[in-house]
Amino acid sequence: MPLTVRPRRKRSSRIIVTLLSGLLPVVLGSAILYIQAERTLQQSALQTAEQALHQFELMLDNTAQAARELLPLAGKTCEAVKLALREQVTRRPFVRSTNLVWDDNLYCSSLFGDFKEAVNAGDYTQGKLWLMNGNPVTPNTALLVYRLSDGRGGALTTLDGYHLSNILRLIGRDTLLLLQVGNNWLSADGTVHQGRLPTLPVAQSKLDSSHYAFSVAAGFAQGETWRYMADEYPPLFSLLMFFGVVSAAIGHVLQKRSTSPSHEMLRALEAGEFIPYFQPVVHGDSKRWSGAEVLMRWNHPKEGLVRPDLFIPFAEHSGLIVPMTRALMQQTATLLGPLSATFVTPFHLGINITASHCQDLALVDDCRKLLAAFTPGSINLVLELTERQLIEPTDITRQLFAQLHELGVMIAIDDFGTGHSSLGYLRKFNVDFLKIDQSFVAMIGVDALSRHILDTIIELSAKLDLGIVAEGVETQAQADYLTAHNVNFLQGYLFGKPMAAADFISALSHH
Ligand code: C2E
Ligand code: CA
Ligand code: CA
């Protein structure tokens, strides 16, 4: 059946589309969250670097102050300045040792008093700062030396690496924080490394001090962005999942709708797949062709020719039956209209109409257009209304039928004998023909009761002066019986099956 085959065939692609529509918000949302997390980490790294930089500058201010106070003493004997050197160590919280230099020689130290060691200004970054990995007193312990010189004299004050690595650890916490001085750098574990500062994998921020020759780098370890998202965003992820499910559901429903029978039929209507077939109707006495009933077929691109009882109910349900019938009437006009001058007149043209087509006056216009395509007076247009679906009499329908009759359009009750139309009903709508349902015709010579009903219908129509058409005539015996009972028109396989327009037109020329 054409209306269900299509969705089934595309099941896999439907699943894929559903999955994709579910994944889309999750993927997009995750990407946005990832960017957001990266930004947050970037900000956090920058802040941490700023704080560390500020702290180091404060410490160095302290150390530099000691050097400034001691510099004027350079050149004096160690004995004379020894106390002053120690006093600075005691007074200043971050200063670990103080030393005086004369002519590039360290000659007095707060720790040892008299001392002798060459000082190389080249060891100091910008001549000012040297990050050392310990000295002879405390090897392998970081030490930051501040150098201040003026002429031949100089002062060296040292800052304990312990304070520095403490800052790296405490301010850093989740952040990787490094202090760089020249070609050496200090990590949070207190180790001094030589060489280039390593690149921090995530959200690296590097700040140079504007006062001293050092810089600070902050950043995060590999994979920190995902870890951060996993820690901070679970509620947002739940929301994304929710959106994903909703979106998948919407995608699923929309696809179902897009392959629903009415959608598929609308597509077919636009593609002109509903075409007319013509079944000859013959005169009861002469058996000459008197016209045809137009029967709809769906010329489905994959399913082939589809019988009307498989799709007409869907068409009626969706309301598409009206435009479908209209399209059928237009095609009939185009196909048969040009031949109408050659018709043995009047040509009986039966069109099946549903009740929904009778709810406004548009049907009058449809019939007018159809008639306009034929030579005037060449056809008897007969609208067939099935007895199973009777029309409620209203002002509109009364008007409709009056206008149809004015146009010369006739009304037939189709499938007569299977529904409940009353005599009053037949009169009210000015019915012109009764079409005896094929089930009664099939019972001729088989079932006495059915034949009795058939006889009654024929009698009734004669009394009401209604034309009568018997359909479903398949055997000569049935034809003979109906002719003997003066049935005006016969229709059935005995005379011709419903056929495509080209076949019908060529057969028509032989009759
Ligand atoms: P219907 O209006 O009663 O049409 C007569 C049906 O009987 C047609 O079936 C026809 O092919 C079939 N038939 C004709 N002669 C014989 C025969 O000797 N023996 C047998 N067994 N059957 C015969 P079809 O074409 O399949 O149409 C079925 C029904 O679909 C029609 O019944 C009609 O109710 C509906 N239909 C067809 N075309 C249209 C249309 O354009 N609009 C509407 N609303 N309904 C249509
Ligand atoms: Ca019919
Ligand atoms: Ca019928």
TrEMBL record:
SMART domains: EAL (SM00052). It catalyses: 3',3'-c-di-GMP + H2O = 5'-phosphoguanylyl(3'->5')guanosine + H(+). It comes from the Bacteria. It is found in: Cell membrane. Keywords: c-di-GMP, Cell membrane, Hydrolase, Membrane, Transmembrane, Transmembrane helix. It is a multi-pass membrane protein. Its EC number is 3.1.4.52. The keyword Membrane applies. Gene3D superfamilies: EAL domain. InterPro entries: CSS-motif_dom, Cyclic-di-GMP_PDE-like, EAL_dom, EAL_sf. It holds the Pfam family EAL. Residues 258-511 form the EAL domain. This is cyclic-guanylate-specific phosphodiesterase. It comes from Pseudomonas monsensis.
